[in-house]
Amino acid sequence: MWIMKPTARAQGKGIFLVNKLNQLKKWATNSKLPFQSLNLREAYVISRYIEKPLLVGGKKFDLRLYVLVTSYRPLKVWMNSGGFARFCTEKYTPDIAELDNMMI
């Protein structure tokens, strides 16, 4: 299973799941992409959905870390010390029926 996230949105808006990567070709040709009249396409990040995520107190979480890459050969990365953790308000359930819940 794969999760598609639009890069310019927040709060779970525009996220959807696909079972197989070949479904994305059909989605790309049939979707009503925003800004179509301007010949712009919305950018997405696709990643494998983690079915057994790391939990803290039974809840999912993410880390927000801010980095600046100044060189990739050799790799030079500067990390800001002002990162933070965000925790889900509800306990995680692996129930497939809950996959449309934006809190997963």
TrEMBL record:
UniProt keyword ATP-binding present: yes
Protein name (record): Uncharacterized protein
Family: Belongs to the tubulin polyglutamylase family.
GO molecular function, a single term: ATP binding
Record's keyword terms, sorted: ATP-binding, Cell projection, Cilium, Cytoplasm, Cytoskeleton, Ligase, Microtubule, Nucleotide-binding
Organism: Favella ehrenbergii
Domain of life: Eukaryota
Subcellular location: Cytoplasm, Cytoskeleton, Cilium basal body
One annotated GO biological process: microtubule cytoskeleton organization
Main location: cytoplasm
Gene3D superfamilies tied to this protein: ATP-grasp fold, B domain
Gene Ontology CC annotations of this record: ciliary basal body; microtubule
